[in-house]
Amino acid sequence: MSVAHSPRTLFAKIWDAHVVATTEGGQFLIYIDRHYLSDDLPQAVYANLAARDLKIRRPPATVAMPDHYVSTKGKSLADVADDERREFVISLEREAKRNGVVHFAIGDPRQGIVHVVGPEQALTLPGMTVVCGDSHTSTHGALGAFGFGIGATEVGHVLATQTLWQTRPLTMQVGFHGAPGFGVTAKDLALALIRQIGVGGATGHVIEYSGATVYGMSMEARMTLCNLSIEAGARAGLIAPDATTVRYLKGRPYAPTGAEWDRQVEEWLRLKSDLDASFDSRVDVDAAAVEPMVSWGTNPSQCAGITERIPDASPSDQIQRALTYMGLEAGSALEGIPVDSVFIGSCTNGRIEDLRLAASIVKGRRARVETLVVPGSGLVKSQAETEGLDRIFTEAGMRWGEPGCSMCIAINGDQARPGERCVSTTNRNFVGRQGPGVRTHIVNPGMAAAAAIHGRLVDYRSDLR
Known about the structure:
The protein contains 16 helices and 19 strands. The protein is α/β, with parallel strands linked by helices. The chain has 3 domains: 188 residues, Aconitase, domain 3 (2-Layer Sandwich); 85 residues, 3-Layer(aba) Sandwich (Aconitase, Domain 2), CATH 3.40.1060.10; 171 residues, 2-Layer Sandwich (Aconitase, domain 3).
């Protein structure tokens, strides 16, 4: 006899399938399917495990790769900026080898940013719980996985037990409606949502993205959308698996094969919110009203369409503080603001589709400002070079880098200069994010490429071809 269930959301189905134990205080012990380790993990995590004589509970469920500290200037350990950062990279490899963990080292053609490599290797699959000591683990939700960032103490707990204590998040349904206009990307839609609800608008929630606009996106665009969920305060972002998800995963190195593939595909395509499932909150965004976005302040909600003006501000409010740091004036136009440097890359916009869009703007032209282009993984780099995208960038006077996080967080030696205005395809424009005193404008890859060519913020739709 079958047991009737009340309608459940996609998130509830994944969560319920992973609960191991609960407490009277409302804590849930959940099983973790995939754990990614990066090179920015504090050494104390390894030391604490060793002191307690604890080994990694399930080495096959853990995957390690350096991305934050690796150099974009070369493929060897010697290229890492300094001894301290080099030791982080070395210790990651040492612990991976000692514990039998899959490790994509510097020089491995698969190495790159965790949130680019995991999906492209099919190490993340629909229905999984996925964690990493990095907040943008939400990216993996594009595959229908519950991916979220964790702290160093939690990393140690997962390594030792393959489980994690959590409080169950609330759910938010975000519906994008209407056809996006010419030149409007997933990055622009995400920024429009964050502008609408604020950087704390989804705090305590897991967002499920829905609507024809979302299901019309490529997998790479969906990853960009889910990546930016964190900037709205969400715990994670989710998109239910569909035919696009299946096509993306088929044939990838760690994807199931044969009869197991067929069985899993059937399960994945059933993994969606029930028709009558209820969410704790709902937000609707008019995708047709969105234009290419650009941030003008010091958090991702402080953004506007490129044809708009910076909002007015009173002398004492948060907007004025942001404008003072950014060296801008309320009421002024965004279009035409001079820029000093450009960065194209990151786990938000370092995939092949992003590089193709940027290259379509750059082809046959010269950059007016210093520009760094960094692919998100070795496979993205190889594909871009096969297509000749690297030559388009280098012939324009731009630097073509080795895979890694690079200037997104500016801890590998790549950073803009104090006081510079940097146009960036990253996810954060916080004070000092790309270097002390650097003023960051976050945009889509086409907008960044156009800023490099013109030396100022422009509406890239005029250059799009």
